[in-house]
Amino acid sequence: MTSKQISIAQWPHPLTATKGTLLDTALEAGVPYPHECRAGECGRCKTQLLQGEVRHTPYLAEALSREERERGLVLACRCYPRTDVQVRWLEDAAAPAPFAPRKQIARVHGLDRAASAVSRVWLALNDGPMDFAAGQYARLGFDDLPVRPYSMANKAGNDLMEFHIGHQPDGHVSGHVAKHLREGDRVHLEGPFGDAYLRKTHSSRPGPLIAVAGGTGLAPMLSILRTALDDQPETRAQLYFAVRDHEGIYLEEELLRLAKAHAGLKIRILLSRPARPGAGHNRLVQTGSVLEALDEDFDSLADSCLYTAGSPRLVGAVKALATAKGISPDALHCDAFWSAPVPPRIRQRKGLTNRLARLFRS
User: Fold this and answer.
1) Rounded CA separation 123/105 (Å)
2) Cα separation of 285 and 154, whole Å?
3) Count of structural domains, the chain
């Protein structure tokens, strides 16, 4: 089979297409291609197809309209070159990747149920520690299941890679991690990826470093805080950890220790819908919205840098509030955790299972 060439208007050299999508090929080559969800849901990798043909896989209509398809627009994360292609991305480029991604083999070194719906997983890489910037993520492959992106919670240079994996209802990958993953299991890892990583320029701003985490978005925020505070212990920082209720809180003791070790760090854990209002609250845990907390703590964010990770809804709301409060665009770094699409064969299996269940109940 003849290899396909991908020419990107904003990149000086043509790329040889891999088996993956147009976006996969670009990221593997170190191209700062704009992207976010990698699942055909956000539309950030929207691309003008200038020449050639591609095979386009399913995506959400909100990410790419029929009219846009008719104008030759495609989603780089959902299309595969059929011929040599020439393309041009539409958004501003992502920040240049600090480290080129590479594929490695890892072994599960440790497991812990950090919360009822969160597993903490430590991986040991066969080739030693991976270079990455705090806030980035890797793509993990467990068993023969679909690859999923998970953010590192550890500092770069650690012997063990730490990941926080949230258990999703009917999630095949997260369900495997929760029920079947064992120490010693082999894991395929590729990374690092992501442009919402810690910038060294944060120390030049007079305002604090702000980290806003929703659920397992705590992982990249922990990596950022651990790195920033270890590099410059006098750093002023504020962490907002948003969860639904007490069941969603995890690593509370570790956060307390981090706050005690660094006088400049303030932490607020916000419960949006506590089952027992007021129960179990302490100096970290409070009832309320993370947006209300940010609004209460800051009249302006013009002098601060802000990092946020979590659900698209939370990240979008935080981004809108920060922008309204005057944050500089180059000081705002967002990582929305989009849900991965269910592969067709899994969707079919699930449909068959549901039909059988209804049959036996009838």
Assistant:
1) 10
2) 23
3) 3
Q: Are residue 27 and residue 78 in the same domain, yes or no?
A: yes
Condensed to tens digits (0 to 9), the pLDDT of residues 162-221 reads 999 999 888 889 999 999 999 999 999 999 988 899 998 887 889 999 999 999 999 999
Whether the bond into 192 is cis, omega within 30 of 0: yes
Q: What is the CATH number of the domain that holds 234?
A: 3.40.50.80
pLDDT digits 0-9 by tens, 49-87: 999 999 999 998 888 999 999 999 999 999 999 999 999
User: What range does the domain containing 30 cover?
Assistant: 5-89
Contact 333, 307 (CB under 8 A): yes
What six digits make up the tokens of 226? 């651990």
Greatest extent of the chain over all pairs of C-alpha atoms, in Å: 67
Separation of alpha carbons 301 and 208, rounded Å = 9
Whether this model's pTM surpasses 0.85: no
Which spans in the chain are helix H?
A: 22-28, 66-70, 172-179, 218-231, 252-261, 290-297, 312-324, 344-361
Q: List the Cα angle 217/220/224 in 5-degree steps.
A: 135
Beta bridge partners of 54: 81
Helices 290-297 and 312-324: crossing angle, nearest 10°?
A: 20
Does 236 share its domain with 259?
yes
What's the pLDDT at 101?
86
Collapse the DSSP code of 131 into the 3-class scheme (helix H, G, I; strand E, B; otherwise coil) and give the result.
coil
Strand, helix or coil at 210?
strand
**What's the half-sphere exposure (Cβ side, CA atoms, 13 Å) at 74?**
24
Residue 148 scores a pLDDT above 70: yes
Q: What is the mean pLDDT of the chain?
A: 89
Q: 106 or 343, which is more confident?
A: 106
Instruction: Answer yes or no: do 159 and 222 share one domain.
Output: no
**Token digits for 132?**
């990455």
What would the two tokens of residue 307 be? 């990092």
